[in-house]
Amino acid sequence: MVGDVPESIQFVLDEDSYLVPELHSVCIFSCSTHEFLHEVPAASKEIFKIASIAPGVLLLEAQKEYEKESQKADEYLREIQELGQLTQAVQQCIEAAGHEYQPDMWKSLLRAASFGKCFLDRFPSDSFVRMCQDLHVLNAIRDYHIGIPLTYSQHKQLTIQVLLDRLVLRIPCHPDSLLECEPYSGDQVPLLLKMKRSKLVLSKAIESGDTDLVFTVLLHLKNELNQGDFIS
């Protein structure tokens, strides 16, 4: 593998393979394997490189020591706070979690981020909540029963709407559970309309409290359903 630096890296493949370029990465397919090659993201590099003293590393260690009820947790936390890097530490753990494939690892990073947030007065929780939702979606679709091994970067580029459209075509039973990851009922409505879930879409529109959205759904259902089904 070559890049914009003089050095190169060699990877030995045991069988004939095909390379498919992806966003910031390359997929390697063979008759028996599906591998994924990409540059280690900056946040992951900072946290997991040998002898790193990045704030995210200290926060991760602080949370682990806290679970052991060790005094070292306070020492690590105090060091981060004295350097004024607690916000950065939380952000690093959240970002690194997004690029991890093993649930145990991204859960550990999110626990560390949640632990650090407790000591911040005004840390916006949106990024943390959204990352939790995104990782639960990614974990579900990476399961071999579904078999869509998206990365976090691919997921954000593709958007949840496009992903759900694909799932509707492939696996009718799974989109409902993924839709529940969307916290605002109104954002679920367009996808439910595509799925032709008339009763549920009207319920979600009413739940949103948006009268314009309710009217739009009713108009759509009137055009799509016969008179008997619409009245019922």
UniProtKB/TrEMBL annotation:
<feature type="domain" description="Vps16 N-terminal">
    <location>
        <begin position="1"/>
        <end position="130"/>
    </location>
</feature>
<dbReference type="Pfam" id="PF04841">
    <property type="entry name" value="Vps16_N"/>
</dbReference>
<comment type="similarity">
    <text>Belongs to the VPS16 family.</text>
</comment>
<dbReference type="InterPro" id="IPR016534">
    <property type="entry name" value="VPS16"/>
</dbReference>
<protein>
    <recommendedName>
        <fullName>Vacuolar protein sorting-associated protein 16 homolog</fullName>
    </recommendedName>
</protein>
<keyword id="KW-0175">Coiled coil</keyword>
<feature type="coiled-coil region">
    <location>
        <begin position="59"/>
        <end position="86"/>
    </location>
</feature>
<dbReference type="InterPro" id="IPR006926">
    <property type="entry name" value="Vps16_N"/>
</dbReference>
<feature type="domain" description="Vps16 C-terminal">
    <location>
        <begin position="177"/>
        <end position="231"/>
    </location>
</feature>
<dbReference type="Pfam" id="PF04840">
    <property type="entry name" value="Vps16_C"/>
</dbReference>
<dbReference type="InterPro" id="IPR006925">
    <property type="entry name" value="Vps16_C"/>
</dbReference>
